[in-house]
Predict the structure of Uridine kinase.
Amino acid sequence: MLPTTPGVTGHKNHILTSHGRPPWYGPDGRAINNAFVIGVAGGSASGKTYVADQIVKALQSLPSILILSQDSFYRKHNEEELALAFANELDLDHPSAIDTEMFAQCLKDLKEYKQTHIPTYSFVHHQRLPETKYLYGASVIIVEGIMALLDPALRDLYDLKIFVQCDSDLMLARRLRRDIKERGRTVDGVLTQYLRFVKPAFDNFVGPTAKYADIIIPGAGNMIAIDLVVNHVRRKLAERHANFRAELSRVQPALEEGWEADVRNWPGVVLLRQTPQLRGIHTILRDQETSREDFIFFADRLATLVVERGMDLLPYVPDSVETPTGAIARGLKLDARVCGVSIIRAQAPSHLQLLPSLTGGPLQAGLQRVLRDVPLGALLIQSDPSTGEPLLLHSSLPACVLDRALATSTYVFLLDTQIGTGAAALMAIRVLLDHGVQEGHIVFLTFLISQQGGPNVLRRAFPRVRIVTSAVDDVLRSGWSELDRETGERRRVWKIVPGMGYIGDRYYL
Ligand SMILES: Nc1ncnc2c1ncn2[C@@H]1O[C@H](COP(=O)(O)OP(=O)(O)O)[C@@H](O)[C@H]1O
Ligand SMILES: Nc1ccn([C@@H]2O[C@H](COP(=O)(O)O)[C@@H](O)[C@H]2O)c(=O)n1
């Protein structure tokens, strides 16, 4: 069964479908090719939703598609308006009935891959409901509404504009059937509202916007027209990015730009002091003979050390307390809202066991030992089995990141066991920035980085992100994976050498 359109109730439609999102940004971390937005306008019951659904069905195999309905943006009604609405005497077809400013802002945010929260509207209750719907990260957005092509601010956001042209008798017949069945209306009510508001509004506002459309689609028997649209969208999306990991692995430190050759000396990289204790833990973790039990024990110990070091990078303010001797002691207290977000690699199916709660990862236990009630989240980032490119499969972020007002002042410990090519790290940082987290508030906590690859990528793209690591190895080597049992193919993989192997697999398998 398809999910309902976010933000509309009493309306039988649809869809956010996702097969993992490939990078929506370049090696410099900046977003490329905003989401592809299709605006679909037409009279009430002309078939806008039907057209949008058919496009989504035909594009099911694409990364993520979303239908955004103008109906979500009906303004709140006061008591007097509510009474009129229930008597079918409220004009809900005038452009002023829609909060177009909010509509355009939500769409702009989504198009730019930022998070947004859209309102929910109930046709049955004639009212905006208290809950909002969090949306983030669609590659294709289909906007549908009677006045979707009316406002220039909205028109500017569309890559393709469609008008559904339908015979007015057919529209009235469909509306009667639908509003009685789905929106709790009577025959009399629908006809009164239609003659008084819907028909005149179509003639004055909706119909004339057909002139802005790139394509006019008939309101019935329209599969050929929909096919043409689908092929156009496919072509546009195919022009987008490929070979991302390979591109990243070619990013080299630009010594001519005055970069230090040794990652250990970079200002944004904090390497733990290489004490005998730390080197002892590394030796156990690097040893392929280490049992899983020991691996978990020492990985947890190492995680605590890395997190403790990361805590030094957070802001503190002066504080004074009275001691048991009655004296005043002056000290410091943490002055930051902090959360942890683990990057979970679905390299091995075993990691998928983390999916229901989507928290976890080998550094999480260490973080919780240091910050007991820390809010947690996770990003599931998988390598595409055939191309090896990173895919964002699922994101589950803590409330302080989902709320944009809090996100800007939240510090995030981003947790991953190692930074190889930097592809997963870059994706995770991009997700946090899209939600409003400040670059300088992200601290990447990891066991291992390499001189080549990832750190260079991250420093170029996000120089204010700091990395706390327990070790730096010299080489990032590219090779080929084992034969995939299902596809019979190998794919390109990168390994830090000497390294610790796939730390997540050794921890969870
Ligand atoms: N091309 C079509 N062929 C058959 N039925 C259609 C077609 N387009 C729309 N309908 C039907 O007409 C009704 C109204 O269509 P809908 O897409 O909900 O209209 P709108 O979103 O424009 O208000 C629905 O019951 C829908 O199934
Ligand atoms: N409380 C409301 C709000 C809006 N309407 C009608 O909905 C029509 C737009 O939705 P479509 O799915 O038909 O495009 C519009 O014509 C409004 O009259 C309503 O009946 N009740």
